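Readers of this paper often ask what the protein records in our data store actually look like. The remainder of this section carries one protein's record, kept here as part of the documentation.

:::
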Amino acid sequence: MPRRKRSNEALKTAEATRRYSGLFYEAFNTSPVGIALEDLEGQPLFANAALCSMLGLSEEEMRAKHCVEFSPPEDAKKDWALFEQLRAGSIDHYQMDKRFLRRDGSLIWGRLTVSLLNHCASPLVVALVEDITEKKAAEEELRRVQEQEQQRADQERRALGTLESVTKQMAAAVACCSRDLRYLWANQGYANLLQCPLDEIVGRPVLEVVGKEAFETLQPHFERVLAGHDVHYEEELNYQGVGSRWVSAAYTPMLDADGVTNSWVAVVVDITERKLAEEALSTVSQRLIEAQEQERSRLARELHDDINQRIVLLAANLDLLKEKVSASLPEIRRHIDEAYNRVADLGNDIQALSHRLHSPKLELLGLAATARSLCKEVSDQQGLQIDFHSENVPEELSQEISICLFRVLQESLQNATKHSGSRHFQVLLLGKSNEVELTVQDSGIGFEPAEAIKGRGLGLTSMRERLKLVAGQLFIDSKRYEGTTIRARVPINPGTRSARAAG
C-alpha cells in the first residue's frame, strides 16, 4: 500500500493543476457529477462539492485520505489492483459500478470512471463518480420481483405437475384456472365433462370453453374464490356444446406470498343422474302424500257420513227407549243413561277423528281459522294452554300449501303434547310479503334434532317431505331442557295474495 505522506512535488503539481485548469475549475466544482484529481499514488489533490456531498466529507478531509479508503474493506484490494494497472500504463482508463464508504459508515453505489491524464506537467488521474444508488436499488427491487415471479412460476409448475399426477386417473373433473380466467391445466375427467379435447381447453379463456350462459351463472363463484374464499355449490349449468348438467363443485384458492389469489383449483362432479333420481323420488313422495290425503278424505267421509250417523241414530233410539221405560225401573234407566253417554262420547270422538283426518274447514274457512280451531280442540281435549295468533295470512292460499301447513301444525302439536312435558304452547301463523311462516314453540324438555330424524319416528321426516313438495323449508331449534321451536316457511305468489289480519 503506498505511503500517505504527500510530497512537495505533489503539492507543486496540484497548484500547477489548479492554475492550468483555472478556466474549468468553477465548472468542475459546480458539476452534479463527483470529480476528483489524484496523483499516481492515489492521493486526492482536488475534489468537487458533489463528490464531497456524496461521501459526507469536506475537501480537506478528502485530501487527507487515500483513494482506497473510500472503498469498503472487502473491495479495497480489488480496487487498488485496477489503479495499479493504470499507473503501470497497462490501461489508460477503466469504468466500474462500485460501492463507496461514506463518513457515517453507510454505503452508496457509484459509477466510477477513471482516466490517466498525460498532458500535464506530471501525470494525473481524474475520477468521475455518478451516484447510482437509487438506480441500483431499483435494479435490485426488479431482480427481487423477477426472482419472486420465477419462484411463483416454478411453484405453479410444480403444483400443476402434482395436480396432473394426482388427478390423472380421477373420475372427478379437475381444472386449474388463472386470475384472468384462463385454464392453466385440466385433467381428462374435465375434458370428458365438457366433451372437449384437452388441447382445446388448456390456455383458453373459461368463457370461450364453457359458453356465455354457463359463464354468467358461474361468475359470482369466480368472484368469491378470487377474493380468497373457498367455494362450494350445486348448480344446473347449460354448458356450450353439452347442454344442461347438474354439477357439484368446490373451488380452492391458491395464494401467492402476499396472500393474494393468483389461481384456483376447481373439482367438479357431474351429479345429473343423482338429481334425476331425487326428482323421481320426489315425484313418488308427492304421489304417496296425495294418495294419503285422498285416503284420509275417504275415511273422514265414511266416518262422518256413515259411522257417525249410525251412532247418532243409536243414541237417539237409546234416548227414546229411556223415555218409555217405567219410572219404577230406575236400574234399567241408569244403565240406559250410561250406554247413551258412552255412545255420545264415541260419536264425538269419531267426529274429531274425522276432522283430524280431513278437515272440511280448510276449504270453507281457510288456513288461519282451521288452525285456530285445531289449537282449541287439542287444548280442550288435553287440558293444555295453546296461545294461537295469526296475522296477514292470505285468504286464497293454494290447497297444497294449506294442507301442508295444517299437517305440519298437527304433527308438531301431537309431538309436543306427547313428548315435551310442557303444558303451555305458542302457535304463530304469519303471512309475509312472499311467504307464510308457521311457528310452534314449547318450553319443554327438548330433544336432539339429528337423533330424532335418525330414529324410527316419521314425524319430522314427513314434515320435511311435505314442505319439499311446496318448495318450503323446515327449521328445528331444540336443546335438552331448553324447549323446542318448529318453524315452517312456504313461499307464495305475492301477485295473488289477499291478506287479512286475524286476532
